[in-house]
Structure formats: structure tokens, C-alpha cells
Design a protein that fits this description.
By secondary structure, the chain is an alpha/beta fold. The protein has 2 domains: about 130 residues, no CATH class; about 160 residues, 3-Layer(aba) Sandwich (Rossmann fold). Helix content is about 35%, strand content about 20%. Strands 9-8-10-11-12-15 form a 6-stranded mixed β-sheet, with helices on one face. It has a 5-stranded mixed β-sheet with strand order 2-3-1-4-7, sandwiched between helices. Strands 5-6 form a two-stranded antiparallel sheet.
Length: about 300
Amino acid sequence: MKQAISISLGSKSRDHKGVIELGGEKIEVQRIGTDGDTTKMQILYRDLDGKVDAFGAGGFLFGFHVEDKFYELRTVKKLTKYIKKTPIVDGNGVKDTIERTSLQKVWDEVAPLFEDKPKTALLTSAVDRYGMAKSVEEAGFEMVCGDFYFALGIPIKIRSLKGVRRLARVMMPIVSFFPLSWLYPLGEKQKERTPKYGKLFKNATLIAGDFLYTKKYSPDDMKGKIILTNTTTQEDRDDLFARGVEAIITTTPEIGGRSFGTNVLEAAIVAHVGLGRPLTSEEMKEQVEKLGLKPQVHFP
């Protein structure tokens, strides 16, 4: 059986292993957290290189796709320096395909939830999930993008994707040199909840973006909210439903009671195709359509 393994800078408490079926072929997928230990991550990549079919980059990205531009994160290169044989992907291929039409694919299921609610959305970080942001915009939502708030700790709202593109052009050449821990919760910090920016959450019906931002900063009262996100465990979903969330849309399939990260799904697709390299954008789009991959909706 082919194997796709994600080595993550995130908490080991979110580790999981399962089997996903793609095009009639079973692929073993696994997530291994390192609790923010970059040296351990490098060693695991080195020891497994050439022994598995594809790697996922967990808890970090090679960069951000914003419209037709790619902004490289320079500080992460050292994390994969020992990989010589196994292809590695960071999930951007899934973000640019499945997430790009995430709301459209499930709209018939969730449309009734918005009939008596304002179509307002909070994107916790649109630079990180630009494809998802495009999906939200095209679904007719009035958006607030919280990139300054959640990634940089600066209380400035962005109200359009034009503003997100402007932010990327100005800030990414600087941000690309930031340590990853400045931009994203790693290790045990992923389990911490420190509710913040309550007004942003209160004013939005749809909360979209990376789940770790939602988990860390969302208020106790989430009554009536709909979540559009990526990786959630059953425990995560139970917690959100207990706080009043009406539905959770996850952009990746559920395996063994949880949805895996975009990097894990992309690695599984790469392993399935078996070219020994990451797929191009067009190849990824073709595979997503061929395999019938789409988001899932979870209700209480």
C-alpha cells in the first residue's frame, strides 16, 4: 500500500493515521506532530526519505498563492533540506482547487442556514487561504479579512480581496523572512484557547479560514455561526457544536473520525498518481475533478 506522511510542527495530540481511497486505490495516510521541534522534523524527513511515496509539510507552507502570484516563505527552506527522493507538498494545490469552489460545491446543503441571517463572513487569513476567500466572495458574502489581526496582531480590517492583494504585495517581501512562530501557533500553542477580537466573530455569520485561528481566538458564544475550515477532529466539532455552531464545512474528506489537513490530502493525491514529483496546478485540478473530491458538511 502506498504511503503519504505529513510531518507537522503542530502538537502530537492531533496525530492520526488512516486509509483513504482514491480512484479505487487505498493510500495509507499519517500525521506525525513534532510539538514545534524543527530538528525532530528534519530528522524524520531524513529517515523516511525514499521510504514513503509522498510527504506533507504540516504546520508550515512554502509560501502563499495570492491570485496569480506566489510569495515564498524563505525561512522554511531549512526544514526540508534533507529530503532528496520523496516529493513533498504543502497543501497549496488543494487550497487552489477544492477550497477555490468550497462553498459552491455544498451550497444546496447550507443555503437554508443563511435564509434568515446576514451574509457576512470573517476570513481569519485570506492570504493563507486565498482560494477559499475567492469562493466566499463569489458566493455573495460581505467580507472582513482578518490577516492583520490574526497573523500580525494589528487591528486593521481588510474588506476586499483587492485589499488582500495589496497587503500581499507590500508585506510579503518582509514577512517572508519572519520566523514561522510569529505567524502561526505551533506545538502546544495549538491547543491553547485565548478568545480575542470578539467583535469580528460577532459580526460574521460565516467564519472561514484555517481552523487553528478559529480554535484559538473564537469566543465561547458561537450561536448561529457556520464554520468553513480545514482540519477538525471529532473533539473539535463537539466543542464548536456545544458553543452553538450550526454547521461545519470541512474542505478535506473525513478519515477515521477527523478531516486531515490540506497537505495530507495533497500528499495522498501525489502518492496515488505516482509520478514521483508534486503535481502541476493543471494536473491537480484534473485529479480533483477525476476523483470527485469535495468538501463535507457536518451538523450537530
